[in-house]
Write a structure and sequence with these properties.
The protein has 488 residues and is mainly beta. The chain is built from 3 helices and 31 strands. The chain binds CU-O-CU linkage and copper (II) ion (CU).
Length: 488
């Protein structure tokens, strides 16, 4: 996945000296007077994508693949990404979780005009915070067509020891994104079990009109679709990815949920996961057999390979759809994996937010301002999702001045889960469901299930006009569940 191995990169960098010139292949770099520049080119373009079983989908991709290329940059380096748009609609790229300067944030009409078809835009920023992040389009419903990829900011000194590293990017997949079938249970009234399509089930409801102009149309907002299944690194369950390990290996996995609507339960059979990072930020490591991965969230986990066999690592969506990644030990020839863990056990064992602890002890100062944000919606209108009963852009903004600490007290009064994501800043998770974390944890996406609540503090350390705070269910976001952090 890595366009240049670290060795190539360092070797070539040494050879470059102070002279500034281009290497044109993707992942090339240039050394300037400031921090070294790592450069990638991403072309957003339609491409038929085969997940390995089932129909080929008319996907929208970066460089022709789902996910797009994994971008890697070293802490302190400058990342430059030249986006060329060959889609029939305007597009942008958002660097999910990366605290970038405001003009690089990729929100159409808020931080930049969207890049028109045929246009080009150069994103450039210094990668300061190491971690596992992802990038994706921030225009309309484009995310649900495959426009996403991983971005890894490598620390200047790696603290973890491991023998192998893999990024697993999960997604909920539509074979026919031009004609999504609305989910009759988009409000959650039938319980979360109702939200998977279960294959190519015929839907009686008529799909929305396909967009005809070059401007993406958001009105009226769409209802969350029924998905055809889950994929991991672009492959469906019938073409499971295999990770080859030797007994004694330590694996580092970077788990990313790039899906538009479905939260996932991640379980691994025969092994435990040691969770080391939440949304890329180090935590006090904890062992678990299952993690929940909300849309937009990431967990980094270590797995000790001490149990030879062929073991499934599964992602399960509400309603039971699965995608499997196999862990195959050297010398194991079997074609039949060991049985996967039971989903019900996973739902019990899954790591809870209030069990987390930040890696560096820190106190929680008194906030300068407090906002209460109630998440509601879905009833009676499954395409209306609100914050304090209002729909973006009519929601009340969160006002801050540089250096202030603002406290967000969230509560979810709706039936569906809402992974709330803040642009440009870390959220400090102070407490969840009334239980205070021993040490606050830095995250950028925190998911609230039905009747759940929590306290998120934000330190206003990245001045910019208007930063989005929104639900990372794409359909909820587009239907209004968003507000803005505004510096005044
Ligand atoms: Cu990953 Cu505003 O989003
Ligand atoms: Cu939501």
């Amino acid at each position: 996945m890595n366009p240049l191995s670290r060795r190539d990169f360092l070797g070539a960098a040494a050879g470059l000296g102070a002279g500034a010139f281009w290497i044109t292949r993707p992942g090339g770099f240039r050394v300037g007077p400031g921090s070294p520049v790592r450069e990638y080119r991403l072309t957003a373009r339609p491409a038929d994508w085969d997940i390995g079983g089932g129909p080929t989908a008319p996907a929208w991709t970066y460089n022709g693949t789902v996910p797009g290329p994994e971008l890697r940059v070293r802490e302190g380096e400058t990342l430059r990404v030249i986006l060329h748009n060959e889609l029939p609609e305007p597009t942008t790229i958002h660097w999910h979780g990366v605290p970038v300067p405001f003009p690089m944030d990729g929100v159409p009409d808020l931080t930049q005009p969207a890049v028109p078809p045929g246009g080009t835009f150069t994103y450039q920023f210094v990668a300061r915070a190491p971690g596992t992040y992802w990038y994706h389009t921030h225009v309309g419903y484009q995310l649900d067509r495959g426009l996403y990829g991983a971005i890894i900011v490598e620390p200047s000194h790696e603290m973890l020891k491991y023998d192998q590293e893999h990024t697993l990017v999960f997604d909920d997949w539509l074979f026919d994104p031009d004609h999504p079938r609305p989910n009759p249970n988009a409000s959650g009234m039938m319980g979360m079990e109702g939200i998977m399509g279960g294959g190519m089930m015929g839907g009686g409801m008529s799909p929305g009109k396909p967009d005809s102009s070059t401007k993406p149309q958001h009105k009226p907002p769409r209802v969350e679709p029924l998905y055809d299944g889950l994929i991991v690194n672009g492959r469906g369950d019938r073409s499971a990815t295999e990770l080859r390990v030797r007994r004694g290996d330590r694996l580092r996995l970077r788990l990313i949920n790039a899906g538009s609507s479905l939260p996932l339960l991640i379980q691994v059979a025969g092994h435990e996961m040691q969770v080391t990072h939440a949304d890329g930020q180090p935590i006090d490591p904890g062992k678990t057999r299952a993690v929940t991965l909300g849309m937009g969230e990431r967990w980094d986990v270590l797995i000790e390979a001490q149990n030879p066999g062929l073991w499934p690592l599964t992602a399960t969506a509400p309603g039971g759809a699965r995608v499997t990644t196999l862990i195959r030990y050297d010398g194991v020839r079997s074609t039949r994996p060991e049985p996967g863990p039971r989903e019900a056990d996973g739902r019990e064992e899954t790591l809870r937010y209030d069990e987390l602890a930040g890696a560096t002890p820190s106190s929680v100062p008194v906030p300068d301002r407090v906002y209460d944000l109630q998440l509601s919606g879905g009833m009676p209108d499954p395409a209306r999702w609100t914050i304090n009963h209002r729909v973006h852009p009519d929601t009340e903004p969160i006002l801050v001045r540089t250096g202030q600490r603002v406290r967000l007290r969230l509560s979810n009064m709706s039936m569906m889960p809402h992974p709330m994501h803040l642009h440009g800043h870390f959220l400090q998770l102070v407490s969840f469901n009334g239980r205070r974390l021993s040490t606050p944890v830095r995250k950028d996406t925190v998911m609230f299930g039905h009747m759940e609540g929590g306290i998120l503090d934000v330190v206003a350390d990245n001045p910019g006009a208007r930063w989005l705070f929104h639900c990372h269910n794409l359909y909820h976001h587009m239907a209004g569940m968003a507000t803005e952090l505004r510096y005044g």
